[in-house]
Amino acid sequence: MGFADSGTIPFQPAQVSFELPDWVEDYCRAYSRSEVVDARMAYVIGAAAQNIENGTGGPFAAAVFEIETGALVSLGVNLVMPQGLSMLHAEMVAISLAQRKLGVHDLSSEGLPAYELVTSTEPCAMCFGAIPWSGVRRVVTGAVSQDARDIGFDEGDKPANWVESLQRRGIGVLREQQRGAAKAILDAYLQANGAVYSPDKSS
After folding, report:
1. Cα torsion angle, 166, 168, 171, 175, sign
2. Fewer CB atoms inside 10 A, N or C side of the chain?
3. Do residues 124 and 155 lie in contact, with contact meaning Cβ atoms separated by under 8 Å?
4. Sign of the four-CA dihedral 124, 127, 131, 132
5. In DSSP terms, which residues pair with 63 in a beta bridge?
6. Strands 72-77 vs 61-66: parallel, antiparallel or unpaired
7. Does domain 19-191 have CATH number 3.90.79.10?
8. Model pLDDT for residues 22-40, shown as the tens digit of each residue
9. Distance between CA 176 and CA 131 in Å, rounded?
10. Phi and psi dihedrals of 28, rounded to 5?
């Protein structure tokens, strides 16, 4: 007998899901494939701007691309506040969508091309922790963690040597790609009085 048959209220949800904002599909289809890293970063920064303009989440975006061809696999934006899930940082969303789209939990699985994660701001502690298990071969970042902290975001306790840590695992890192443009998105979010969420530390 199931919960529905017994009239019993479930103790907890049977599944967890999230929905992307309506504008994301059209934004993905408008992407022009580029082998230039700067062009891919500009595209991701543009998605972060769209997330602010549409009021659909925080000022962060990330995408998974094929490194060699520049083909877009997935695009994620920050959905923490609208979806009510602290795990929905842009990097986590992009990685999850890529894995679901390709049907693998490891993006470095045999037979697949090498993938990169391009993110408008350096990964926080949570997203940094997820990167080694995602299977991406390279991480490309825009704004630095301090830029996010400067507008009030809590980036967590990420190791100071996080770049070297990823490199030891064979994951390349390119930092501060178009940092100025990426930081401008964060500053615009602050000026627009965007919600800066963090765990409640009052207790």
Report:
1. positive
2. C
3. yes
4. positive
5. 75, 118
6. antiparallel
7. no
8. 999 999 999 999 999 999 9
9. 18
10. -65, -45
